[in-house]
Amino acid sequence: MTPEAESPLHVIVTAGPTREYIDPVRYLSNESSGTMGFAIARAAVACGYRVTLIAGPVHQTTPEGVERVDVVSALDMLGAMEKHFPSADAIFMAAAVGDFRPKELLAGKWKKKEEGGSGAILELVENPDLLATIAAGKGHRKVIAFALETSDGEARAAAKLVRKNADYIVLNGAAALNAASSTVTLIDAGGTVWTAEDQSKDETAAALVDLLEA
Ligand code: CTP
Which of 41, 39, 51 is nearest to 200 (CA)? Predict the structure, then answer.
């Protein structure tokens, strides 16, 4: 279907970090700024697609024409994905999802020092793999995952492609976090499709949205 057709492709983009609260004022999170996901949402809406942007806590302006759903934790993000994925044609999973969350959410501040001792142990439980969970039953939907790797990037990303039932995986180095540009490698089941050195996130976003035309 062309973007100009009456019923445009529905594209889901996830962006930013997730935040896993320990108590009312402390949380576990990561450095993701959401820049890549918001750039994809802008590029997709510019192509005439219907875009649902599921965003963790970020300081980013909502692109005009995009439906934004704000979430906090990985489980919140999964809930939003499960709600919107059935009507979608594609998902770009650019969010940096926290792999673990505190086992308990404390109602009041964690008064660890009052318990004595010089250290603290926070018990964590694993979050589900959001993408693997929804992509297991993806049907016709196109699934584009991301991977941030610091070593053995291509091999690790290729393994994630299979594990998460993705059609493509976009490999970044740690330098991509919070940066305006990055070196990215696009991988599919056949191996490396292309590598772009030091490319702006807007250029990468446009190249990734082009994948939907195929
Ligand atoms: N992802 C997800 N749910 C998670 C973790 C990751 O959906 N709990 C998605 C990310 O949004 C990304 C892809 O899976 O599209 C790869 O994320 P990454 O953090 O690189 O992978 P992990 O499976 O968490 O592996 P690692 O142990 O290397 O962190």
Answer: 39
Q: What is the pLDDT of residue 61?
A: 97
Is 157 in a helix, a strand, or coil? helix
Question: Cβ < 6 Å from ligand 1: which residues?
Answer: 74, 93, 95, 97, 99, 127, 129-131, 145-148, 160, 164
Contact 182, 176 (CB under 8 A): yes
The four Cα atoms 55, 60, 65, 71 give a dihedral, to 10 degrees, of 20
At residue 42, the pLDDT reads: 98
Task: For the chain, list residues with pLDDT below 50.
Answer: 4
Structure tokens at 21: 């609260």
What DSSP character marks residue 192? Answer: E
CATH class of this structure's domain 10-101+124-213: alpha beta
Active site residues: 30
